[in-house]
Structure formats: structure tokens, C-alpha cells
Specification:
- By secondary structure, the protein is mostly helical.
- The chain has a domain of 145 residues.
- 84% of the residues lie in helices and 0% in strands.
- It contains seven helices and no strands.
- Helix 4 packs across helix 5, helix 5 packs antiparallel against helix 6 and helix 6 packs antiparallel against helix 7.
- It starts with a helix and ends in a 5-residue tail after the last helix.
- The relative contact order is 0.16.
- The model has no long low-confidence stretch (mean pLDDT 86).
Length: 213
């Protein structure tokens, strides 16, 4: 149990340190982050759609594709939750049978239940984030085609961009939560695999978070 607590603490600290570093780097060099780039692209898209009266069909199609993608990911999260619950007893037995004793310690039933709970929490957070992304994409669908006069046009544009960027952020967090489930799954094999998977995940995120070009 002690080794698992240490491994979990170190893994959480590594992930937190990475995102603190990413946030600081983005503030200093906005062009280095793919998230800042995506936000600017979404704002430019909103500006193009709202400044051209004949772009309504493109807006609807694009938002529909985004809603369908978020809906697929939310459904996947639900299926993963149901599958994890249905296989919980088998996963516990597999953990007992397949655990690499040469690298760790004797596994207790309480420990794998804690790991199972954390994995379920991870998938639940992913479902929530994708559901919120669907909600914000739907709001944008109404806002982006709403006509406005010159007095409220600029404020309406800012609100539409804010909603769309919030939808993109929710989708991004849901995807990252899926990524985070991989170290948690490997945690069933022992604390060493958790830390190793965390390091590999951070290396992969560093590549994904870097703006291309």
C-alpha cells in the first residue's frame, strides 16, 4: 500500500508540474501551444461565419460534426464505465494472478478496489466533460446564426467565441482524461508501471501540446 501511495503521489505531482510548466510557457510564448492556436482558429472561424450571411450551412455542418464526435466519446465513456463494473471481479482476480511479484508486493483486495474506483472516477469525469462539450456546441449553434444589430454585434461575437472555446476545452479535457486512464490501468500491475506509464504519457503530451510549424 505504501508503494502505491508514493507512486500515485509522484505521478500526480509529475502531471501537475507538466501542466504548470505548460501554462507558464503558454503565457510567455502563446504561439508555442497548440491549445492557444486552436482557440485562435475557432475565433477566426466564428468571425468568418458571422460576417458572411451565406455560411449558415457550413456552420451547421461543422457544429453537427463536433456534436457527433463529442457524443461518440461520451458514449464510449459510458460503455467503459459499464464494462469496468461488469468486469470488476474478474479484474481483481486477474490482478491477483498476473501481478509481477518480482517487481512489487502482495496485492490486497482493498487496494485493487481503490484502483478500480479511481478508474471509474476517471471515466466518469470524461463522460461529464464530453457531455458539457455537447451542451456548449449546441448553444453555439443557436448563437452563431442569431442576427444582431451593430450595438450588440461585438459583444455577441465575443460570447459566441467564449462558448465555442469552452466547448473545445471540455472536449480536450475529456480526451486527456481518457489518456490518463492508461497509467491507471497499468497501475493494476504495480506502482512501478504507474510511474513508467506516467512518464511516457507526459512525453506524449509534450509532443501533442506543441504547436506545429
Amino acid at each position: 500500500m505504501l508503494y502505491d501511495i508514493i507512486a500515485l503521489s509522484v505521478s500526480c505531482l509529475l502531471i501537475l508540474s507538466y501542466y504548470l510548466y505548460l501554462g507558464r510557457r503558454t503565457r510567455r510564448m502563446p504561439g508555442s501551444s497548440v491549445h492557444a492556436l486552436n482557440a485562435r482558429i475557432r475565433e477566426r472561424w466564428v468571425d468568418r461565419i458571422m460576417s458572411n450571411a451565406d455560411m449558415e450551412i457550413l456552420a451547421v455542418q461543422t457544429l453537427r460534426n463536433s456534436v457527433m464526435a463529442a457524443n461518440f466519446m461520451a458514449s464510449t465513456a459510458v460503455l467503459l464505465i459499464i464494462g469496468t463494473l461488469n468486469l470488476s471481479e474478474k479484474i481483481g482476480q486477474w490482478t491477483m494472478d498476473w501481478h509481477p511479484y518480482a517487481l512489487a508486493y502482495t496485492v490486497s483486495s482493498e487496494l485493487w478496489k481503490i484502483k478500480m474506483g479511481i478508474l471509474l472516477l476517471d471515466f466518469s469525469i470524461a463522460f461529464y466533460c464530453f457531455s458539457m462539450a455537447i451542451r456548449f456546441f449546441n448553444h453555439v449553434g443557436y448563437m452563431i446564426n442569431a442576427p444582431g444589430d451593430a450595438a450588440i454585434g461585438k459583444e455577441h461575437y465575443k460570447q459566441t467565441c467564449a462558448y465555442l472555446n469552452r466547448a473545445g476545452s471540455c472536449y480536450m479535457v475529456g480526451t486527456r482524461t481518457f489518456f490518463l486512464s492508461l497509467p491507471i490501468i497499468l497501475w493494476f500491475l504495480g506502482p512501478y508501471f504507474l510511474m513508467l506509464a506516467t512518464l511516457i504519457l507526459i512525453a506524449g503530451l509534450a509532443i501533442l501540446d506543441k504547436a506545429p510549424g
